[in-house]
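quick q for whoever's on today - can somebody do inverse folding on this one?? i tried earlier but teh output was garbage lol. tokens:
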């Protein structure tokens, strides 16, 4: 009798484990599908915008004289509210600028004084031989997609630009050496 009871408990445990694994698998699949749909809709929204990322950078630089350190396409619920968030450095301050992706209207957001760490990173960026705009062009030469995001960063102690480019239904992460302009890494982003 004990053996039958143990077998029933083991069988119940196996069924419970199987149900839990099935639920987890379905949950992960739906999250992946949701993330892929978000990437596809963001790529579509960015590629259909009247203002390109490059044009947004020019408009932002006219409004605020400074060095652009990052740009990010941000899709809102409705396409007409999509915009580019651009961070610039001027007079040791970080200025956030928003450019409407359909009208080109520039809005200045908050300004923040650089701390020591940010100032050190900014000084490293100033020594780069390749600008953010050049890095974007280099990264997009072969992909010929829609640039969604670009930023200066330190990658394992090395100054680089990280650029995300949407093409088809995939987002490609491209890393460009800020001293040579050469692509050091290019891969499909499975995180978004």
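ok took a stab at it. sequence:
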């Amino acid at each position: 009798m004990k053996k039958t009871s143990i077998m029933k408990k083991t069988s119940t445990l196996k069924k419970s484990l199987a149900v839990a694994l099935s639920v987890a698998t379905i949950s992960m699949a739906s999250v992946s599908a949701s993330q892929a749909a978000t990437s596809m809709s963001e790529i579509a929204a960015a590629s259909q915008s009247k203002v390109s990322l490059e044009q947004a950078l020019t408009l932002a630089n006219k409004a605020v004289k400074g060095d652009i350190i990052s740009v990010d396409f941000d899709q809102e619920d409705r396409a007409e509210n999509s915009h580019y968030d651009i961070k610039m450095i001027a007079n040791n301050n970080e200025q956030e600028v928003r450019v409407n992706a359909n009208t080109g209207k520039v809005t200045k957001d908050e300004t923040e004084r650089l701390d020591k760490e940010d100032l050190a990173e900014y000084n490293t960026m100033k020594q780069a031989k390749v600008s953010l705009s050049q890095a974007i062009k280099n990264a997009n030469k072969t992909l010929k997609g829609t640039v969604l995001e670009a930023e200066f960063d330190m990658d394992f102690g090395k100054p680089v630009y990280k650029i995300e480019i949407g093409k088809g239904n995939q987002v490609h992460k491209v890393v460009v050496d800020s001293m040579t302009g050469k692509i050091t890494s290019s891969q499909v982003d499975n995180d978004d």
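fwiw The chain has one domain: 47-188. also The CA atoms of residues 57 and 120 lie 23 Å apart. so keep that in mind when u check it
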